[in-house]
## 1
Amino acid sequence: MENEPRGAILQRDKQTYAIVPRTPAGIVSPEHLENIVAVVRRYSIPVIKMTSGQRMALVGIRKDDVEKIWSELKMTVGQATAPCVHYVQACPGTVVCKYGNQDSLSLGLELEELYLDMNLPAKLKMGISGCPRCCGESYLRDVGVWGSAKGWTVTFGGNSGGRPRIGDVMAKNLATDDARDLVRRLLVYYRDNGKPRERTARFVERVGVDAIRKDILASAPYIPAGEP
Ligand code: SF4
């Protein structure tokens, strides 16, 4: 919106703003934490809210302070309203979790970096989990990926909102390169065929999971016909 400060969302009081610094896959550095604490103190920001997307919302910021805070934070803007990838949440996976089958953290970081600037019909969230316990909430995200000992399962069309939907399995037991490639195909297909503001859950319901699978998997040599 014109005249709105960069990367800021007007709050209920119609006077103050919230900002959400980007924290890919929920990872923050000591420097980022120190900068956050410093701006919260300096600008008397009343609320730091942990979001469901593994991000920190700084809430109750005066309009004139927004740009100064961004420059002092030295962090990039996390998208909160634009039609694009808002975040990729990821569990720790094999990096630290004893149950991990796959490296969900690395894949999550990579996917966020790859698709950060991709324009889409609506906002999109991804959830990457290192094992079937799905701590990364994969089945409830637009694009979900979770690992087993045999490889990655990729799901599409999940949503945890007011009309919740469990994502459909698009393929199972994929190598990392193939899972990454399938995520790309799904995003491109959704970008090219989704209606404006249509989330993937509604998109899958409208187009049909079988049609999507057929269109996408027909050109994916790594997935045998009829799978999953
Ligand atoms: S999904 Fe599995 S690997 Fe990831 S945190 Fe949960 S238990 Fe650990």
## 2
Amino acid sequence: MLNVEGLTKEFGGVVAVNDLSFEVREKQIKSIIGPNGAGKTTLFNLLTGLLPPSRGRISFLDTNICGLRPHVIARMGVSRSFQNVEIFDNMSILENVMLGRHCRTSCGAVSIALRRRKAVKEEALIREEALRQIEAVGLDADPHSSPAALPFGKRRLVEFARALATSPRLLLLDEPASGLNMRETEQVAQLIRKIRDSGVTVMLVEHDMSVVMEISDDVLVMDYGTKIAEGKPREVQKNREVIARYLGRSNEYAKNPKP
Ligand SMILES: Nc1ncnc2c1ncn2[C@@H]1O[C@H](COP(=O)(O)OP(=O)(O)OP(=O)(O)O)[C@@H](O)[C@H]1O
Ligand SMILES: [Mg+2]
């Protein structure tokens, strides 16, 4: 589904992503792990068109998407959540989720003026789909209320619903479990599984190794922008270099892996 070759991003003297090559197969959960500053978020920014690569090739469904604008890539079916939850408190929960769907519709400002009836119909469909996704992520809050009062874990779910409202084929999640308690983390892990089972391919950046090791089909480990390992969770977890450079120093999980 996704094919990345020799992808490189330089910021001045910093090589944030360094000659990275990998593949993501359809309907798999592929996790990207590595220490702070390894280049994980930068990779997501490159894949979604937020940043232009310095070098390399990104092909999504056999189309070269390098240099395409973010909204074009989104329309092709690549959606994401952000490391810092980005929710607008001056809009309702429903409106926040509907924002996601707007990338799919044909009605811009001009066409809305010209073809009001079609626009109204589209708006109703967007609303319906947004409500469906709010339910699907298990967010038990009034969709017409402001998200301002929601606890952090539920704000995360609003972001999930918004990303899903674009009907993505590939969903990129940047640290979806950060700041969540154990129960919420487990819920998010189940939700990611459910999303994958519904046919969506997932790329996951996450520091919580219990989530990564439990739900990933495949794990890629980055350090200083470079791939240092890639494989099944069990293989990666035992990899000496990965333990030395990441798991061993930053995570209890390496010392106490689940059987
Ligand atoms: N817009 C930017 N301009 C300059 N340097 C940047 C920019 N974005 C990222 N960097 C640098 O690129 C490197 C990779 O950063 P990135 O945010 O991708 O890491 P990360 O793996 O997501 O880290 P974390 O786990 O802390 O989120 C870091 O050295 C960072 O300082
Ligand atoms: Mg990051």
